[in-house]
Design a protein that fits this description.
Layout: E1 2-4, E2 8-12, E3 23-30, E4 33-39, E5 45-52, H1 59-72, E6 81-88, E7 93-97, H2 106-114, E8 122-127, E9 130-135, H3 138-145, E10 148-155, H4 156-166, E11 172-179, E12 182-189, E13 192-200, H5 205-217, E14 226-231, H6 233-238, H7 240-245, E15 250-252, H8 275-279
Parallel strand pairs: 3-6, 6-10, 11-14, 14-15
Antiparallel strand pairs: 1-2, 2-5, 3-4, 4-5, 7-9, 8-9, 11-12, 12-13
Length: 282
């Protein structure tokens, strides 16, 4: 484990310091920084970490931070990548029912949601009977394409929806994740999405507001629904008094997969931390 002002925080297995076959990197990047996980060729998770920026940054500045980290920070600078999954964290996306989706009109569908035509290629990722549309992170995609045999683009809304479906209840469930600068929300009826949204969040006091807003907009009866929380435990500790009153029933999401798929180095990471990069089935 290492933490400095420049490198952020990461947890890494000692095996990463030895010669390894090309690994699998999952990285989520946004204006507030990035987080990542590393898996070996067998799928075992060997590292997780991230760097948060003090102030929201442009996409160019965020790219610079990612490149600097993976080019200069040991042991990651010495690794080669078989596959890289790049996850875009922002609120510029849309989710449509699969029955309404037309691949030839994906740019138009995204433009309708964003109020303007995207200036880069549009990706479409299916999750169950829904399709998530978003613009590529071209800078990160081009950088990792020069270093990896295979690069896939994703959106955090797509990844979170897939994870929420894996934690769904038989009835109504509300899933809330606190990501750097954002609150992500998914409401499910069984495993069918009722709502998928990402809200900009500038303070812990807004988290409870969005939780109540999502429940109200979807006419969710808090006494009958399951509430599942993901992300920073510090946020939910600050909200514990409100959570004792509302909602009536909640739990924290757990890691997917068996304990044997995680390095002992990751025992330092709470099971509701790093929800996407540790649990995403990518």
């Amino acid at each position: 484990m290492k933490t400095t002002d420049t490198d952020g925080l990461y947890y890494a297995d000692k095996r990463l310091e030895e010669p390894l076959a090309p690994c699998h990197l999952v990285l989520e990047g946004g204006e507030a920084g990035f987080c990542f996980s590393v898996r070996d060729a067998s799928g075992a998770r060997l590292a997780a970490g991230g760097l948060e920026l003090a102030y929201p940054a442009s996409e160019v500045r965020s790219l610079e931070q990612v490149v600097r980290f993976f080019e200069t920070t040991a042991p990651f600078s010495g690794l080669s990548w078989e596959r890289v999954d790049v996850i875009r964290l922002d609120d510029r996306f849309t989710v449509v029912p699969r029955a309404f989706f037309d691949p030839e009109k994906k740019a138009d569908l995204l433009a309708f949601a964003l109020g303007g035509m995207p200036d880069r290629p549009v990706c479409a990722r299916q999750v169950g009977d829904a399709v998530c549309l978003f613009a590529e992170q071209t800078g990160l995609g081009e950088y990792f394409s020069s270093r990896a045999a295979w690069v896939e683009q994703h959106h955090s809304a797509e990844v979170f929806l897939a994870l929420a479906r894996s934690n769904a209840s038989q009835g109504r469930s509300v899933h809330l994740n606190v990501a750097p600068g954002f609150v992500q929300a998914v409401v499910l009826e069984a495993d069918d999405p009722v709502l998928v949204n990402v809200f900009r969040c500038r303070g812990v006091e807004q988290v409870m507001y969005y939780l109540l807003l999502v429940a109200e907009r979807t006419q969710t009866r808090e006494a009958e629904a399951d509430f599942v929380f993901y992300g920073s435990p510090q946020v939910f500790l600050q909200l514990r008094r409100q959570l004792e009153r509302y909602p009536g029933r909640y739990r924290f999401a757990r890691r997917l997969g068996g304990v044997e798929s995680y390095s002992p180095a990751l025992d330092f990471v709470a099971y509701y931390d790093w929800y996407n990069v540790l649990n995403a089935q990518l």
